[in-house]
Design a protein that fits this description.
By secondary structure, this protein is an alpha+beta fold. It has a two-stranded antiparallel ribbon. The relative contact order is 0.09.
Length: about 90
């Protein structure tokens, strides 16, 4: 599916309605953006997290998407900087 869109002076892009509906998006949907071979790709975070299900070692299910993202980031940065921070 192809469509044309324009980026505004505020770097905002309006997703054409047919693509918006086909992707199952709605107002307030959090999305992840990727650049591969100079092509911008967009994926809803819910879809991305469903694809990654089982990779996050959290035994208790998160209450919502934002909580899941916060827990994953907290663990990542805690592990990453564990031995690098001065005492």
């Amino acid at each position: 599916m192809q469509a044309l869109a324009t980026i505004t002076s505020k770097r905002q892009l309006t997703i054409p309605v047919d693509i918006f509906v086909k992707m199952g998006l709605f107002e307030g949907t959090r999305v992840a953006l990727f650049v591969e071979d100079n092509i911008l790709k967009l994926q809803s975070l819910k879809t991305l997290l469903n694809d990654l299900q089982g990779c996050v070692k959290d035994t208790k299910p998160a209450q919502d998407l934002d909580e899941m993202i916060f827990k994953s980031k907290s663990k990542h940065f805690k592990d990453k900087w564990k031995n690098k921070l001065p005492l």
